[in-house]
Amino acid sequence: MDDPLYREEILDHYYSSPYRGRMERPDCVCDLDNPFCGDQIHVELTVGDDDRIKEVRFDGKGCVISQAATSLLAEHLEGASVDDARKLGPADVVKLLGMPLTPTRMKCGLLGWKAIQQALQQRAAATA
């Protein structure tokens, strides 16, 4: 199987992500879906007093790309500063996935990133 979509690391994040689940008291949450393909993502984050992301959890359903990309993002963002997380862009997500995405797959791959960005924006607005 040469399709990068089915690389072992991607499948591990899809089938058994350690970041899948829910928290008792997240600091910020966001739910998004992709109506074109049916992907759904729910993200939760906790942020420490030092403004670093302590924990990221997600739940959802959908294609390998949407779920694995969110898991890879969670892995990348735990311990990162909120500022660094907000500076992440779509190209960074594609780099984490390690494969090029078609325009259709790009919407799947960026769903978790958009949810995390919205959750952090809501937190910033609530604490301003």
Automatic annotation (TrEMBL):
Organism name: Paludisphaera mucosa
Coiled coil spans: none
InterPro entries cross-referenced by the UniProt entry: NIF_FeS_clus_asmbl_NifU_N
Domain called NIF system FeS cluster assembly NifU N-terminal: residue spans: 6-122
Pfam family, one: NifU_N
Protein name: Iron-sulfur cluster assembly scaffold protein
